[in-house]
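re: that chain from earlier
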Amino acid sequence: MLLPYLKNVAEAGTDEAGRGCLAGPVTASAVILPKDFKHHVLNDSKQLTKNKRASLRPFIEAHAISFGIAHIFPEKIDEINILNASILAMHNAIDGLSEPLNHIIVDGNKFKPYKEVPHQCIVKGDSKFLSIAAASVLAKTYRDAYMEKIHEEFPMYNWKKNKGYPTKEHRAAIKKYGITKYHRKSFRLLPEQLSLNF
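^ sequence. v structure.
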């Protein structure tokens, strides 16, 4: 059973999606939930089906005290690296919260201080705390929606299915068609990669 909060204060949970992708943004969400928040399905978004995530998103948005979403796009990822981009996405998502907060809980083991707000990193936090699980669902659904949108522009990569992750199909398409403005040039896009024509 997921816990409602770590500390009995105004606390935001934050998580990101898309860190291991070859294309598209890394997307983060930050969520402040009320202390009595409950949903029998809510869990780490990676453990949920697409349909369950889709049904959870409006419920979370309707019942959260506040939530924020942020994308960091490939050009910035290539400039500052994916770890820094993931943390920047979480900071920007926290910036989007409309309520003041006293504490931040972060999925994973890496974070940089946000202003003067205390934080705690929690490995597998999205399977331990409701606010991080909620943030994981929002980050994943907003990022998936973005990838489905840009799929229309470049359907040969099948982003509506693989969401930019390094599947065999995605890598075969990169080999055949080259890369797009949505690809992360600093990533190893092909297993045998020596050079790519940017």
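The chain has one domain: 11-151.
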